[in-house]
Amino acid sequence: MHRDPQLTNAALMARRQHAVARGVGQAHPIFVERASNAELWDVEGRRYIDFAGGIAVLNTGHCHPQVIAAVKEQLDRYTHTCFQVLAYEPYVELAERLNALAPGNFAKKSLFLSTGAEAIENAVKIARAFTGRSGIVAFTGGYHGRTMMTLGLTGKVAPYKTGFGPFPGEIFHALFPNELHGVSVADALHSVETVLKNDIEASRVAAFILEPVQGEGGFYVAPAAFVEGLKAIADKHGILLIADEVQTGAGRCGTWFASEQWPVAPDLIATAKSMAGGFPISGVVGRADVMDAPGPGGLGGTYAGSPIGCAAALAVIKAFEDEHLLARSQALGERLIAGLRHMAQSAPSIGDVRGLGAMVAIELFEGGNLARPDADLTRRVVAEAARRGLILLSCGTYGNVIRILVPLTAPDALVDEGLQIMADSFAAVR
């Protein structure tokens, strides 16, 4: 392939700095030319293994043939009508499929939108319409999006909330259980009760919202006992439970929705990211009586549930079925956990290895001391891995977590190659 010698990462970074708002971050100073499954190549021809997956968007890999074929076929038919003006069958079929996939022994309905934040916003709207209440209780460390409402829900200030307040009212935060950092399930449930005593009466709370596995917050898994206790509080007071599955959904955690592994079913689920294999679409699925609370015209959006996104999402669901990707997610998670635990034997800074399905992370501490999160080492390992050809992302309240979101379609040999690069990176920056 002929390449323009002047089209380098450095040259493009210089152009970017002049043309793009500085608030748009960039984890690596790399510009992509092409990608396939779990590999990509930059404009200089260098190959990388992708353990980031576009931040959990590529569970079926870059340019999955089935997804690309479905999108190309849809492009030849129509690209947009606005579903609220002229409807189309793929939207209805996708709703039928998601209704069948969502947990809970009750009738369900779905709504499609464009982004994860938009799905969360609409889940809140629906909960408020159904309950006639305004309050929302979210959790520390949670991340729910970049709009004003979703920033208000997000339980982490820097960099997402810095300089953007004030945020919408009637949002409150309770503790998310995190045994590693000293917050037990009992502590977290007590903090919910404290919010209902000190901040807002339960009769004005519309919903609790939480991630089954915190994404930006550090890949902490919500314990089953906590979810069960939270649902008991919710049911006692007529409060809805919203599962934010923007990052955990579409098979990342070994079931289509991570909340399928909960001991109770959420009333509403927000989903996005990997559901369409790289094409923009999001959704809310939940109890039919709750979903039907807003009147006609109360929900929707110009690009919401685009024909392209619906076609891609249906192809993703078919790829999961054809390639047994839920089982692959579980097996991949086991492989990653085993590899990272082996790595930790020679990297004492790795204080914890955790995950649900193939949503896996390690947390780094100075000398393995759990009281001293090591964000600096985390940055250096991520940068060194990129230098060696592996794309990683960090996250967490303390900036000391390295998360792995490799496509579920990545072959074992490629995953092992990536893990070896991680191990070599730890050895190099010690």
UniProtKB/TrEMBL annotation:
Transmembrane segments: none annotated. CDD domains: OAT_like. GO terms for biological process: gamma-aminobutyric acid metabolic process. It comes from the Bacteria. SUPFAM superfamilies: PLP-dependent transferases. The keyword Transferase applies. Keywords: Aminotransferase, Pyridoxal phosphate, Transferase. GO terms for molecular function: 4-aminobutyrate:2-oxoglutarate transaminase activity; identical protein binding; pyridoxal phosphate binding. Its EC number is 2.6.1.19. Its cofactor is pyridoxal 5'-phosphate. The keyword Transferase applies. Pfam families: Aminotran_3 (PF00202). InterPro entries: 4NH2But_aminotransferase_bac, Aminotrans_3, Aminotrans_3_PPA_site, Class-III_PLP-dep_AT, PyrdxlP-dep_Trfase, PyrdxlP-dep_Trfase_major, PyrdxlP-dep_Trfase_small. PANTHER family: AMINOTRANSFERASE CLASS III, LEUCINE_METHIONINE RACEMASE. Belongs to the class-III pyridoxal-phosphate-dependent aminotransferase family. This is 4-aminobutyrate--2-oxoglutarate transaminase. It comes from Piscinibacter terrae.
